[in-house]
Amino acid sequence: MEARRITLAVPNRRTLDIDLDISDAEIASRVSGLFAATKLSDQEKRKEVETTRMLQLKRQRDFQVDNTDAEWKIGTDTVSIFL
Questions:
Q1: For the whole model, what pTM was predicted?
Q2: Residue 76 is part of which domain span?
Q3: For labelling, which of 3, 4, 24, 60 has a CA lying 20 to 30 Å from the CA of 67?
Q4: Total structural domains in the chain?
C-alpha cells in the first residue's frame, strides 16, 4: 500500500496492481487487456465501466496508508479494502 498505489498478490490469482500515477491512456490500455477474453458486446461495456471507475479513483485524494484496512470474505472471492 502506497499513497497512490495498491498492490495485492494472492497465490494462484492474477496480481491486482492499481497505480494512480500512470497516464489516463495507460489506464484505458490496461483495462482493455483485462477483458480481452470476454464476449465482444459485454467486453466493450465492461471496459468502459472499469475505465471510468479507475479514472474516477485516480482523481480522488491520495490513499490514507496509515488508516487502511482490508477484509477477505472467505467463500465469496471478495476482498474489500477500506482507505
A1: 0.59
A2: 5-82
A3: 24
A4: 1
